[in-house]
Amino acid sequence: MKRGLVTGLLLGGVVLLGLAAWVAVRSARYIDSEVHPPRNPVGPLPEDAVFAGLRAVAFQAGEGLGLKGWYLPPRNGALVILVHGLSGNRTQLLPEARFLAREGYGLVLFDLGAHGESDGTVSTYGDREAAQVRAAVDFAARQPEVDARRIGALGFSLGGYSVLKAAAGDPRIKAVVVEAAAVAPAQALQDELGHYGPLGLWPALGVMKRAGVDVNAVQPARDMAALTDRPVLLVAGTEDPWVPDSALDHLLGQGRGPWEKWRVPGAGHGDYLLASPEEYPRRVLGFFSRFL
């Protein structure tokens, strides 16, 4: 009887240790895939007539980080910087680029660091990426066709965190559309891995520390509070599991700027144009036409 009990306890211990190891490895691998995202190929310049004049460009962010992208000169003087999400590249927001270009807006679409054709190996949840957005603003402001008083930005997910933080520190960004980015990355990490306890969080934090990533450096609520004099449109799908309505309202509660939100009916984490092919362009174009 005692031998059976001992054997059972030993087996139970082995199972628990195995489960703990599985949780730790899973957590570490998951975060490693976010901090070191896979690169997707960019491909050639789009040949759509609406992109006539689009050209490949390169510019640098801090510490000599080389960024690659595309530039379309504006026909109306105004320009929008488009910033993709995690594991994406400049092509991810081509649908938005098309309807903006049709209305005469200039565009800068570029690959964030560690994505597409840009330099870098580490993604930082929008922290260092904010400096890359500001580098795109520097590039745009130097172009003779661009009215430097009419530069806006639209970012999706990782890009949303990036443009929000960039705008908080750069008054040249006059209007911002933030898509699928409302919950602070530190809170999102806690929500996603915290239910596993320390074994879910500690390996993830270890991966980030080794990569030099500070998950607490990105604070959307703080960045919203810095934009009380500038317009912000918050966009998220009604079916997006990572962006609850309460998170959007929390951002809107940080001040009294000309801010608004829109939940795209039936959309998840992205694909807003598919879910709402008429209303989505109308909302985004209407926003930029009012404020740029």
UniProtKB/TrEMBL annotation:
InterPro entries xref list: AB_hydrolase_fold, FrsA_esterase, Xaa-Pro-like_dom
UniProt xrefs under Gene3D superfamilies: alpha/beta hydrolase
Residues annotated as domain Xaa-Pro dipeptidyl-peptidase-like: 94-187
Superkingdom field: Bacteria
GO molecular function: hydrolase activity
Keyword Cell wall biogenesis/degradation: no
A Pfam family: Peptidase_S15
Keywords: Hydrolase
Protein name, per record: Alpha/beta fold hydrolase
